[in-house]
UniProtKB/TrEMBL annotation:
InterPro entries: HTH-type_LysR_regulators, LysR_HTH_N, LysR_subst-bd, WH-like_DNA-bd_sf, WH_DNA-bd_sf
Coiled coil regions, renumbered to chain: none
Entry keywords, A to Z: DNA-binding, Transcription, Transcription regulation
Name of protein: HTH lysR-type domain-containing protein
A single Gene Ontology CC term: cytosol
Alphabetized Pfam families for the sequence: HTH_1, LysR_substrate
Family the entry assigns: Belongs to the LysR transcriptional regulatory family.
Molecular function GO labels: DNA binding; DNA-binding transcription factor activity
Classification via Gene3D superfamilies: 3.40.190.290, Winged helix-like DNA-binding domain superfamily/Winged helix DNA-binding domain
Residue stretches making up the HTH lysR-type domain: 3-60
Organism: Bordetella flabilis
Amino acid sequence: MNLNLRQLEAFVLLARLGGFSRAADQLHLTQAGLSILIRRLEERLNVRLVERTTRSVALTPAGHQVLPIAERMLADAQSILACGRGMTPDQAGRISLGLAPQLAGTVLPEVLKAFRDDYPRVSVIFRECVNEEIVGRIYAREIDFGLGFGIQTNSELDSQPLTQDTLAVAFPPGHPLARKRIVRWKDLLAYPVITLTVGSTMRTLTENVFLAAGQALLPAYEATNTITALALAREGLGVAVVPTSIHPAAAAQAMLLRPLRDPVVRRSLNLITRRGSVLSDASQRFIALFTAAITRIDVHPPAHSR
């Protein structure tokens, strides 16, 4: 009996998400295309796996029996592929990953250059994604792993903390905060504040600090990414709450950064993979270089600041 891994993948994702619309989106298929995959799998097994209704999908008793077996088969297939991708530096190959746009625009170029020196024949395919898309692409096996902050995982994914960065404030030269060696959160109350949009990890952390101090956060502007927030601050529209990992981009634009104190707020950079997957040596080297690049970022004010 020949089983199609794509059909098994479609069935497992449909069972996890409980609906054709969401599963089709994750697999980048139409609902009709997903239905065809499920129907062909049922025909191959000669058993009905799901009960379809207008609003939801439920597994049949046979579907409940098949699901854990299908999950194991997919995990085994992933392990086989990973063994094949266990490249040494002189071997050709590729790795694929998803990461936040902020990381792609700041740390990634340095890491790619160092990785190319170590693995000149291994290509790197990267996708700039928000957290939800990183998770979806890992489920769909479009990427080997993801790198991000505050990614919500579940029992199907592994999340490994790699390093941390710190929340900071960005402003242009000549701003009154430039005279301060230490900038505290309460110092921001005197200026328009630029934050990320509601729902982002950065916004949640920022709101929590203000709430703990009994203050309401009323942003002057809300940006969807830290690069935009930095650009708004550069034009004098306010001070931007950003992570210290954006320092390379800030320095390139002659912007100043000060880590925020009282309290110091950190966030964790996590490696996200499918549970049970095995990363190649090349992938592990890339992750090590990326972690080191984030860790090396050290933001300190000049000695003459007060």
